[in-house]
Amino acid sequence: MAHKLSPYFEQVLEELRRLLSDIEDDDLRLTPDEPAAHVAARMLAARWSHYRDWDAKAGPFYESGGLSAWLNADADEIDRMEAAGDLLSVTTDAGRRLFPAFQISPSGKPLPHLAEVRSVLDPALPNPLTVARWLNTPSPSRFHGRTAAQVLFAGDPEPVLAAARDDANRLAH
Could you read off the pLDDT of 112-135 as tens digits, one per residue? Predict the structure, then answer.
C-alpha cells in the first residue's frame, strides 16, 4: 500500500514539476544513459544546508557533501574548482565550508564567468561572504532588478564585469 502524501509534500512535488519542466533531460544527466533514479538521488543528496544565520546573509547554501553529490564531483574536484575561482565558498565560525546555492543552476551547472568576476572583486572586497552578497543582491540600476548571478547565467558577462571593475576601482581609492 502506498504512503499517502501530505498536502505540503504534494505542493513541493508540484513545484518541482514546474521547475523541472524548463530543464531539458540532457541537462540533468551526467551521462547519456544515466538512470532517472540516479539523477533523483543526486538531487536529494544536494539538499541545501540549514544554517539560518548564514542563510540570511547570502544563502541558502550547499554543504560540501551535498554539492559533491549534485555535481558528481569528488572532494578533490570541488577543491580544484574552488581554487580556480569557479566555485565560491564561505567558512562559518565553526570552520564549516558552505557553498552559496545561487551559484549552481537548477540543472547543476556552476555559475559561468565566476572566476573572471572574482579576479576583479576578490582583491577589493573583504571576504567571500561579501563577494557572495555582491553577486546575489538585486540591482535595479545596474541589472534591471536582477542579481549579477542571474545576469551571468543569462549569458551576458560584460555588464557584471563592468560593475565589478567600477566597484573595485571605487573601493581602491
Answer: 999 999 999 999 998 999 999 999
